[in-house]
């Protein structure tokens, strides 16, 4: 069976190419902010894959270790399911889950969702080769578009939505509440949600993970400006910005900044936007919240998703929560 590798969700290009309202908003604020989703053009997704291999960046390998130990138990707990992954990227860790589901089912479906078309298409083509018995199709779009699509396409059997890598950390508390509502809407009673979250830990470990010695995280952060340059005909000069990540202990979140080195103006032609930058001014490009496993279970319960089981590593650096609507 030949399956189109990608399904482009409604208005994907409109949302990403023509809109940019969120950029105008963020750059007109004081302090300036930019939405973290703009990290992920194809180059950004590539750089993120490199981050995942860094010695200082513990989340990916810690979560992968938990998954390799417990994937079979997760599959046993849910039984045969339609598998939907939000922000799948290269789907490397996903293989651990797909291997486990392949053991318990002979008609698996897997829908990875991502905003980077290049990486999504490549990973779907590879997975179709590796799992010929699966129906695999990438959904190209934002989380909002994907969850709206899923809510409009209920699956008669069970569905498991998974959201790994602590990508939830990019959302403010209000945004996560909204997001959990959208997840619940895309599930019917009895369906499952598997969430991977990075847990609170000492500041020095966290800051090292986001200020790596090889400068890959710095390149990833600066790449957001290149992305805006090509997507919106901008003229950000990457040499005028410096990367820094700090752990805000009070808010238990990493904050990634681009600090402006010299006063200058930037234009984004297709957004009709001209912005002044002062020397020493900074753009907040990302928050990466660090969570408490018990707290998170309570928040999920409030949204009607009850925890079935949690897993963590021996150091309790990362947690997985399986819940049911
Ligand atoms: C993909 C959002 C989970 O917050 O750790 C990695 C992104 N930023 N290094 C994270 C990121 C800097 C990552 N998430």
Instruction: Figure out the total of helices.
Output: 11
Low-confidence stretches: none
Order of H and E elements: EHHEHHEHEHEEHEHEHHEEEEEHEE
Give the termini separation.
33 Å
Protein name: L-histidine N(Alpha)-methyltransferase
EC number: 2.1.1.44
Domain Histidine-specific methyltransferase SAM-dependent: 21-324
Keywords: Methyltransferase, Transferase
Describe the structure.
The protein has helices at residues 12-19, 21-28, 42-53, 58-78, 94-104, 117-130, 143-152, 173-185, 203-210, 216-231, 293-302; strands at residues 6-8, 32-33, 82-86, 109-114, 135-136, 138-140, 159-163, 192-198, 241-248, 253-260, 264-268, 273-277, 282-289, 306-312, 318-324. The protein is an alpha/beta fold. The strands form three sheets. Strands 1, 3, 4, 5, 6, 7, 8, 14 and 15 form a nine-stranded mixed beta sheet that branches. A four-stranded mixed beta sheet has the order 2-13-10-9. β11 (264-268) and β12 (273-277) form a beta hairpin. The radius of gyration is 20 Å and the shape is globular. N,N,N-trimethyl-histidine binds at residues 51, 59, 165-167, 169-170, 210, 217, 286, 288. One of its GO terms (biological process) is methylation. Pfam families: Methyltransf_33. It comes from Calothrix anomala FACHB-343. Residues 21-324 form the Histidine-specific methyltransferase SAM-dependent domain.
